[in-house]
Amino acid sequence: MALRLEERLRPVRAAAHLGFQIESNWSDPLVFLVYALARPLATSLILLVMFKVVIGGATTDPRFVALYVGNALYTYVLLLLVGLSWAIFEDREQYRMLKYVAVAPMGLVSYLLGRSWAKFVLATVSATVVLGFGVGALGMRFPFTLQSVALGLGVTLVGAAGVAAVGLVLAGCALVFARQSMTMNEATASVLYLLCGVVFPPDLMPRLLHPVALALPMTWWLEASRRILGVRGFSPLLAQPGDAALGAILLAVTAAWVVGGFVVFALLERRARSNGLLDITTAW
Amino acid sequence: MNRDRFAEDRLEPLRTNLRAAWARAYVRIFAASREPSWILFETIMPVLGMFAYVYVYRALGAPREFETFVVMGGVMMAYWLAVLWSMGTQWFFEKQEGNLEFYLVAPCSRMAILAGMALGGVVMTSMRAGLSLVAGVLLFRTNLMPGEPWLALGVFLLTLGSLYALGMCLASLFLMYGREVWHVSNALAEPMYLVNGLYFPLKALGPWGFAAISTLPLAIGLDAMRQLVLGPVLARGLLPVGTEVALLAASLPVNLGLAVWLLARSERIGKRTGALILRHQ
What we know:
The complex is a heterodimer. Chain A is mainly α.
């Protein structure tokens, strides 16, 4: 049993190693870190200036902390979700290796999940640095107990699973799309920034969009993370369920997306194979 | 007869360069109509991301003029992203696609190709920018009518000219890069939104605002256009419009001259190191 698990994990580990190499082998770690952190830190500072210019209050104001936390954690969506789809595009169009991966016994999903591990680590570093910047430079205070750390880790893992599940759907679309998949990734990240209650309560959006926001695992994950970090009442819509109910909703929505993500990816992979799209090159 | 032929010979390089520029622009202008799905991914969906900042201001209870800041910033953001990805990194893409060597051996100036890219880029990006504008006006009821429309148009065109000249500089500079280009371009997106004050008045940056305005055409142009649309008080302008127009007018030839110099230098270094048309580096 242990050996089988070891065998199953071997390709994922190899893909993860490859992911780290592709991500970082063009530069030394310090330069790489500067590039990786520039984007989330800049977005946080934009929000800080926007808050200061309008409210002008302390950065410990719960309204600011709520949007700061949402923005810090959104890095997972930017890197993990977009990274999954990007791996398909990059391997098919630029490195032209996707067809070899597809015929290997490991399967595309294991490979993609392994590749996304590098993005997950990078997102974790990025979110930690941005939250650390909030504590160190902006004077924010988050509860730091054994329980909050354990809950935070658990919720982050569930949240990452949800993000990866949505990413699998996107990766499946990338399999059947031509070079548009390149712009589709960034565009999807923009739409999710709007829909998931990242920097403003989803209550403010038209009511028609509320069900869409509530059906996304990221919305519940961000709300759960905010509560663990001591920020409550960010959105009346999301504040309705209690903590236990919120956990149950997060798990249920994530589970639904994980199942749906695998199914949709399998369907789109089959379609890509039958239409001969696995080695199509439309960009380079 | 000889004089006519002499004039003809003198005009021929100009005609060649104009034809090359138009050929490069043509691809960009007509590509979008041949692949309509791009309109969804490159115009409609990114515009939705801009809305998030309008809602942030609404959540904070900001005055209405801040929504105008966001919409105008969103319009100019489209051009900045085009400069970054469709100008700056374009030589890198061309290298990967195998087109760069054709440009290098073609009997036209590389600047003509860059000018064509810029012209086509402006037309292509204007579709997205126009959509941001329309969405901002219709959905958020922002007032974007400037008091002096012709002056505002002039400032806008001057900003675009200077911005795309900066894009030519980036294209020349990025010619020397390999995969790092991706990361540089990514790193120049959000940090540039910050230093250019895309979603807030530049004045809020304090002394950094002056640093931005002294170097970046986007910051100068946006600040001037906001003052023309909202008035200097509501726009919280950093410098008088006249000063900003003079700065923009000065930055255009400076950026163009820098682009020519950088292009020649990058090409020379690339040839010497053998990396000019080396793919996947």
